[in-house]
Amino acid sequence: MKRSFKKNIGSDKPSLVHFYANWCTPCKLMTPILEQIEEEMGESLNVIEIDVEVKEKLAQKYKIKSLPTLLIFKNGEPLWRQSGMIQKEDIKNAVMELA
Fold first, then answer.
1. Do 33 and 91 contact (CB within 8 A), yes or no?
2. Model-level pTM?
3. 46, 76, 88, 92: which could form a disulfide with 15 (CB 3.0–4.6 Å)?
């Protein structure tokens, strides 16, 4: 994640943002799923992880109330949101619908 958050989500390709905390067990379980998605979808998707305890203002801005929460952005707009555990195929389908 070398580019800034704002630049990543402003892209015309989808950005999958994972809001998490280090103490959150379901968040830890989501990480390998997101890594698989990133590997499978390659350059067609940005995957970004945001630690809500480090980036509190960002978490507040997007009203993150439960963890993990996933958002998909395209051109700077949040187009999809899901809290809690979600299957890999459901995430990929959501990305494909918004691509």
1. yes
2. 0.93
3. 46
Q: Which of 27, 30, 50, 95 is catalytic?
A: 27
Query: Would residue 27 show up in a list of annotated catalytic residues for this protein?
Result: yes
Q: What CA–CA distance (Å, rounded) separates 85 from 29?
A: 8
Rounded to the nearest 10°, the torsion over CA 13, 54, 1, 43 is -30
Q: Quick check: bond before 68 cis, omega within 30?
A: yes
Residue 46 structure tokens = 């940005």
To the question of domain 5-85+93-98 being in CATH 3.30.360.10, the answer is: no
Which residues, 6+ apart, have CB-to-CB distance to 32 below 8 Å? none
Q: Which residues pair with 46 in a beta bridge?
A: 15
Residue type at 30 in one-letter notation: M
Structure tokens at 3: 């580019």
**Over the chain (99 residues), what is each successive 10-residue block's mean pLDDT?**
75 95 97 96 94 96 97 97 97 93
